[in-house]
Write a structure and sequence with these properties.
With 66 residues, this protein is mainly α. It contains two helices and no strands. Helix content is 74%, strand content 0%.
Length: 66
């Protein structure tokens, strides 16, 4: 199955965005594991909220938003 250069570029951009999100999640989770008790849970909940909010507010990858 062949795709146009634009489709390939869009697919790569979507993959890179997904990979970056995964890396951020893993980093945040690792940082939270160094915390204890209520601070850990509060920090983890806030990081999750921020990640979800940034995902919801981000324009679709590879789409012209003009």
């Amino acid at each position: 199955m062949s795709s146009t250069p634009n489709e390939s570029s869009d697919q790569l951009a979507a993959f890179c965005t997904s990979l970056e999100s995964t890396q951020r999640l893993l980093l945040a989770n690792g940082m939270c594991e160094k915390l204890d008790g209520e601070v850990e849970q509060t920090t983890r909940a806030e990081l999750i909220r921020l990640m979800v909010q940034s995902t919801v507010n981000s324009p679709p990858v590879g789409k012209d938003t003009k």
